[in-house]
């Protein structure tokens, strides 16, 4: 049996990107129950990809109750619906077999990974204050995506002079703005810039000199699209809500590395249940960005452990 439930988690503060702001994380929790064992997964439907709580719920409810992970890969495209069911099936298989998910995947036991902490888009003054509050974190990721972003970046660097900085423009810049901003990104010690241009306009990145490595986010989903990223991007941001679950995420990671891309592992704003399988993908990644639970005012029982700027692997009580 497969069941799906809509849940909401309050955010600790308003979270703003170039496309809008939110005060809560709206997620879907999937439970797979067979032979008296229940596995769980979580997804975050994303309007940018044409998803809603209702449309994703309908996709999940239309699946056969006894579907296998292999059959699921053919039944649904990559996206939030397949992610939640895929991760629930991994959890169910782990609990039923008494093994951890990484053992089933043939992976070494995971360890903690240094994770980004995200600062949402705001005024330069507010972003400097936020950066100063989190200046002890090793990596800060800042949301940008407007024509007036350099004062914001200057402010963050002033507030957190020792932190590594990752910039996420969320498709908010034009190619002219990006070319103008690049020298400032380099000067201010930015180590990676995510999705500077709209996915539909990223052909303009071909042949552009890299002063800072460029990462594909909205342009990168599954292995099928990897060929289109060549010459445009240096790094691929793998998110389970885009790949459609852990199964495809692990395969995408391996192929991306084989093709010479760096790997970033990211997330939507969700609970520890959504982050838990992504910790397996993040092992050894160039950048890990699994800070979703740190932005929440509430979380799951048996949540992920975060300490010293790191995210730790899940306990079996949470997932896998």
TrEMBL record:
Its cofactor is Mg(2+). It is an enzyme of class 5 (isomerase). Residues 124-215 form the Mandelate racemase/muconate lactonizing enzyme C-terminal domain. It comes from the Bacteria. Keywords: Isomerase, Magnesium, Metal-binding. GO terms for molecular function: metal ion binding; racemase and epimerase activity, acting on amino acids and derivatives. InterPro entries: DgoD-like, Dipeptide_epimerase, Enolase-like_C_sf, Enolase-like_N, Enolase_C-like, Mandelate_racemase_C, Mandelate_racemase_N_dom. Binds 1 Mg(2+) ion per subunit. Mg(2+) binds at residues 168, 194, 217. The active site is at residues 143, 239. Its EC number is 5.1.1.-. Belongs to the mandelate racemase/muconate lactonizing enzyme family. PANTHER family: D-GALACTONATE DEHYDRATASE-RELATED (PTHR48080), ENOLASE SUPERFAMILY MEMBER DDB_G0284701 (PTHR48080:SF3). This is Dipeptide epimerase.
């Amino acid at each position: 049996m497969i069941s799906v439930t809509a849940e909401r988690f309050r955010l600790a503060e308003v979270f703003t990107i170039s496309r809008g702001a939110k005060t809560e994380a709206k997620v879907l929790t999937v439970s797979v129950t067979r032979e008296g064992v229940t596995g769980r997964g979580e997804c975050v439907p994303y309007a940018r990809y044409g998803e809603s709580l209702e449309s994703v719920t309908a996709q999940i409810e239309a699946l056969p109750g006894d579907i296998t992970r292999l059959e699921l890969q053919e039944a649904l495209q990559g996206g939030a619906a397949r992610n939640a069911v895929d991760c629930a099936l991994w959890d169910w298989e782990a609990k039923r077999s008494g093994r951890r998910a990484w053992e089933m995947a043939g992976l070494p036991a995971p360890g903690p990974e240094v994770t980004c902490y995200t600062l949402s888009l705001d005024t330069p003054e507010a972003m400097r204050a936020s950066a100063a509050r989190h200046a002890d974190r090793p990596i800060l990721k800042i949301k940008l995506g407007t024509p007036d972003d350099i004062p914001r970046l200057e402010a963050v660097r002033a507030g957190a002079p020792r932190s590594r900085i990752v910039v996420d423009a969320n498709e908010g810049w034009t190619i002219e703005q990006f070319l103008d901003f690049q020298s400032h990104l380099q000067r201010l010690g930015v180590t990676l810039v995510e999705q500077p241009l709209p996915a539909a306009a990223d052909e303009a990145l071909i042949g552009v000199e890299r002063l800072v490595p460029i990462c594909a986010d909205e342009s990168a989903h599954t292995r099928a699209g990897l060929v289109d990223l060549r010459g445009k991007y240096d790094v691929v941001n793998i998110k389970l809500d885009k790949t459609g679950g852990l199964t495809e995420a692990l395969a995408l990671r391996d192929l991306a590395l084989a093709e010479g891309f760096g790997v970033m592992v990211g997330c939507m704003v969700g609970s520890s249940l959504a982050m838990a399988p992504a910790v397996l993908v993040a092992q050894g990644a160039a950048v890990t960005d699994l800070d979703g639970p740190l932005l929440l005012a509430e979380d799951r029982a048996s949540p992920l452990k975060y300490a010293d700027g790191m995210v730790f692997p899940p306990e079996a009580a949470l997932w896998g």
